[in-house]
């Protein structure tokens, strides 16, 4: 705590400058953030934290920022893995605005199925407040336990059951954003051809245009039934083809995930006891599936009848491509469901064994999935060759669409002797692979957002005029670069 | 033809200044356009028309416009009903760029189900070229016979089977827009969290940002089966509730339309012979449905199995709310399918009897549908009271969503003694009702776009900062107001 410098912010009744608040808001959940927190070397801290309870208080804080020329970082659940909320070195003071006290269901229109939430409401409170009334939003990113509805919208998040519920883009219906130019009231209309969609312009602005304070989302009746299952395909091509056919034939599953052979082997080793593994392995070999086998994880969510007909259609496709399920399928699906938000905690476990772990993700067209995955895996595997270090890599497709899929790659490498040296290894892995993503016909992020860590790669993806669109908007709403500078665009205050 | 003034455009090998070309591109298909064409009083004409065949030629035309300081109007099928392509009085010369020669399927990636089209490809050519390969886009607005894929994107169009295929927003995957600042290459990615979506920023810009030249759209395998059917509900509340439950329970129909009681009566009178009408009326009365009955039109599109289970789920809902179908249902559904693009021609038929007809449309939340429909109908019915004229009005919900529905109102009024006086009557009807839409929690257009006719109402819907977003973008891409000025925004060159 001794290293937290004195706050440079002027006094204000809404601003807290206690060290603990500043330390707690200094970092997100990226690998460098996590290293920083372990090592105690946070680099930079916000000069203070505010916890507004109303839109009016957010406006007041923004006006105070203009008056005293300081920087504002909007903060949801602090789960960013791309540096969205990390203060950078700056001659100006930095205020983090933590939206966590705006966490209530403010209105639920049951006829139109629209819920209005305070933007700082985290996943569990979103669902608890809705489910008490018989409704669900159905948005379950891996960060769900902490991340907030406003954060999901600001960074264009996607949940694990997006096959049924859609991405946050399909859920966000409108609401209120406080900007330096005033309040942006985003109209909530089912569908419109009245010019560009303002919802879509604000989603993904990552705090650069303003701060979401109240948001309307499209909700649904809580489903009658939800089930997760697992089955195994003979090889990657079969698994990928099943996923593509499910999406393109619109089989109404709520999720489908395809692990490649390496991930399938790793999961079998990590997720089960030796006895269980041998039992499963023996059964699958008996059914003709060797080490090339790939695991499919899938779920149905809806009425019992809808789930039944969805599974019936799926089974036809699985059979055609040689899928093997059986009695184990339901048990393993249940295991997945129990562990679905646990992956981020794996970092602690492997660290104790001297192993670092992180993930990279993108999405691309079906026709490019193999090439993109192969390039990402090969790049990671070879990235530390010069250091004589091996990297263990595996991948799954986490979200599927008619056009393509998201690619989610996990990699493990040995920790170096110091935090600094471990961070250097990570930087090599990250930058080499991001370069490969940017140069492919893929996006620099399917679900994590841009933040500071991906801003460098945006121009390749969006093109010169695409970047001009974003820069023009940000500049018009925040000409002095007061809101989250360095995020989304590579600029500094 | 004598009234077409001399062209003010400089000579260019791509520009045609023949009177016939200029007359043919002077007007769209709105009621005033149609009056102008009948009366021969076109008011203004483009000074010339170009028919580019490549993106390079579009760039050349835009550069020529800058060089010689003239205005450019992008033109697709000329089916605008909101004044998108109508030249206004201007001291500058006006060039209409007709995209009709860029009408080819340039590429079809069957694995990723992405088709690339010249932006000027009209509906029938889109489908013919795709269906020859076993695919479909499935976008069928009423203007389908003439309107183009680029026009659909530029004006955020919606097709009749949007319940299955989605709006054009769900189909448009990326492509190329030629702007005054260069070529905007819009990346085609299945889904992304990399900042604001450039596709979404360009859709609905109605030619103000640039001209789409090549567009990628998400296509599907041609369906195994498609059926349209009709049934009758006891009253409006029952019909509306069925539609809401279908959307909110995600019953996979491809379309559902709910006619109110007035439209149901009118359709029965207009669409059938007296003998057929008496037969149907007698049967429905026997089944307990009186003059309050409402017609539901619906369709299924997909595999035979998917259609069967969709109809099974629908039937349960219909039964719960007192629906009556029977043997007539399939026959009447087939009649609807045959006449689905015919409505625009009705104008000619009624005109011969001294009756003018036009439509108005919006969309709003389920909780506001009744109020909005009632206000629109009452406003139209009373709008010509001062002139002692009655207006006949009826309505249907044309597109349904979980959140709400589109409201599509048709109105008939007597022609006055002169074109001018008839136009005055129309202006009263249009402006009074648009005011009621703008003041409701509804959009000024669900599917027709903004054009010149709705620009006045945009600020109420989008708000001051919402308008600022649009103005900032347009100004940045076209600071001299060269591209379609007066459209989308109320500005003049």
Description:
The structure is a homodimer of 493-residue chains. With 493 residues, the first copy, chain A, is of the alpha+beta class. Chain A folds into five domains: 15-100, 2-Layer Sandwich (Uridine Diphospho-n-acetylenolpyruvylglucosamine Reductase, domain 2), CATH 3.30.43.10; 102-221, Uridine Diphospho-n-acetylenolpyruvylglucosamine Reductase, domain 3 (2-Layer Sandwich), CATH 3.30.465.10; 225-340, Alpha-Beta Plaits (2-Layer Sandwich); 344-439, GMP Synthetase, Chain A, domain 3; 454-493. Chain A is built from 17 helices and 17 strands. In chain A, the strands form four sheets. Chain A has a six-stranded antiparallel beta sheet, with helices on both faces. In chain A, strand 8 and strand 9 (182-186) form a beta hairpin. Chain A is globular. The mean pLDDT of chain A is 95. Chains A, B: This is Alkylglycerone-phosphate synthase. Chains A, B: Belongs to the FAD-binding oxidoreductase/transferase type 4 family. Chains A, B: Pathway: Glycerolipid metabolism; ether lipid biosynthesis.
3D shape of chain A: globular
CATH fold assignment of the largest domain in chain A? Uridine Diphospho-n-acetylenolpyruvylglucosamine Reductase, domain 3
The average pLDDT of chain A is: 95
Number of individual domains of chain A: 5
What Rg of chain A, in angstroms, do the CA atoms define?
Answer: 23 Å
Strand coverage percent of chain A: 15-25%
Kindly state the percentage of residues in helix of chain A: 25-40%
Biggest sheet character of chain A: 6 strands, antiparallel
Number of strands of chain A: 17
Distance between the termini of chain A: 27 Å
Low-confidence stretches of chain A: none
Largest interface: A-B, 90 and 90 residues
Put simply, the count of helices of chain A is 17
């Amino acid at each position: 705590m001794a290293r937290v410098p004195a706050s440079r912010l002027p006094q204000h009744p809404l601003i807290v400058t206690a060290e603990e608040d500043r330390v707690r808001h200094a970092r997100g959940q990226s690998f460098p953030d996590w290293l920083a927190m372990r090592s105690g070397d946070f680099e930079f801290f916000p000069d203070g934290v505010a916890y507004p309870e109303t839109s009016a208080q957010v406006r007041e804080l923004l006006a105070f920022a203009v008056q005293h020329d300081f920087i504002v970082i909007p903060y949801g659940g602090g789960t960013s893995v791309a540096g969205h909320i990390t203060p950078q070195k700056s001659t100006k003071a930095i205020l983090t605005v933590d939206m966590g006290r705006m966490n209530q269901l403010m209105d639920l229109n049951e006829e139109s199925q629209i819920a209005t939430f305070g933007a700082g409401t985290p996943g569990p409170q979103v669902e608890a407040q809705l489910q008490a009334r018989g409704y669900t939003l159905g948005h379950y990113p891996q960060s769900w336990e902490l991340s907030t509805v406003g954060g999901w919208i600001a960074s264009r998040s996607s949940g694990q059951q997006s096959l049924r519920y859609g991405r946050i883009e399909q859920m966000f219906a409108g609401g209120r954003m406080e900007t330096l130019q005033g309040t942006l009231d985003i109209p909530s209309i089912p569908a419109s051809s009245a010019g560009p969609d303002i919802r879509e312009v604000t989603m993904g602005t990552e705090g650069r245009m303003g701060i979401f304070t109240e948001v309307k989302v499209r909700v649904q009746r809580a489903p009658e039934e939800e089930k997760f299952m697992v089955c195994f395909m003979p090889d990657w091509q079969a698994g990928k083809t099943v996923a593509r056919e499910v999406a393109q034939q619109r089989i109404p599953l709520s999720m489908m995930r395809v692990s490649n052979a390496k991930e399938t082997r790793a999961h079998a080793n990590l997720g089960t006891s030796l006895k269980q593994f041998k039992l499963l392995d023996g059964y699958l070999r008996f059914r003709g599936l060797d080490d090339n086998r790939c695991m499919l994880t899938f779920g149905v969510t809806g009425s019992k009848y809808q789930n039944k007909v969805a599974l019936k259609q799926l089974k036809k496709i699985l059979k055609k491509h040689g899928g093997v399920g059986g009695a184990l399928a339901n048990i393993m699906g249940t295991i997945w469901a129990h562990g679905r938000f646990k992956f981020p905690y794996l970092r602690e476990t492997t660290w104790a064994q001297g192993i670092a772990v992180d993930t990279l993700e993108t999405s691309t067209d079906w026709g490019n999935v193999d090439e993109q995955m192969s390039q990402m895996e090969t790049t990671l595997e070879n990235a530390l060759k010069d250091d004589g270090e091996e990297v263990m890599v595996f991948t799954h497709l986490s979200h599927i669409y008619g056009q393509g899929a998201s690619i989610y790659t996990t990699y493990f490498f040995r920790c170096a002797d110091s935090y600094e040296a471990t961070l250097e290894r990570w930087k090599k892995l990250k930058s080499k692979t991001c370069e490969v993503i940017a140069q492919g016909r893929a996006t620099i992020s399917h679900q994590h957002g841009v933040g500071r860590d991906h801003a460098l790669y945006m121009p390749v993806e969006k093109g010169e005029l695409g970047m001009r669109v974003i820069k023009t908007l940000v500049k018009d709403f925040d000409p002095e670069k007061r809101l989250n500078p360095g995020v989304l665009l590579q600029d500094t205050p």
